[in-house]
Amino acid sequence: MAGHFELVDAPDGGYRVRMLDGSGSLMAISVTFPTKRAAVAGIAMAREIAGTGLIRDFSNNGAGTVIRDRIGPTSSPEDSAARGKKLSGAARAVVG
Q: Phi and psi at residue 39, in whole multiples of 5°?
């Protein structure tokens, strides 16, 4: 289920990038870029970070720890339940 990026006009001028999942649900929206070229460069950077970047947990109890479990995307509650049977307890806590 591949998603896609959309370039949209920013309300304050310039452009933003929206990242949507394969079903069209909004996953993220970027900062404002001054030009389309800068927005496309931002997409390239987002792709690099998404593919190689660490996950740092800065939630209330996370204290900046790095989550090392490799977890694939969740498509549906049924997929999550099936995947939960295969994952360790620590990984299930991150998915849920």
A: -65, -40
pLDDT category, 78, cuts 50, 70, 90?
low
Q: Where do the H-state alpha helices sit in the chain?
A: 36-52, 77-86, 89-95
Is the pLDDT at 38 greater than 70, yes or no? yes
Going from the C-alpha of 13 to that of each of 10, 17, 34, 53, 85, the distances in angstroms are: 5, 13, 7, 30, 48
The pTM of this model reads 0.63
Residue 70 has a pLDDT of 60
- Cα Rg of the chain (Å, integer): 16
**Integer Cα distance of 93 and 51 in angstroms:** 22
Asked if 8 and 15 count as a contact pair (C-beta separation under 8 A), the reply is yes
CA–CA separation, 31 vs 38, rounded Å?
A: 11
The one-letter amino acid code at 95 reads V
Six token digits for residue 28: 């993220």
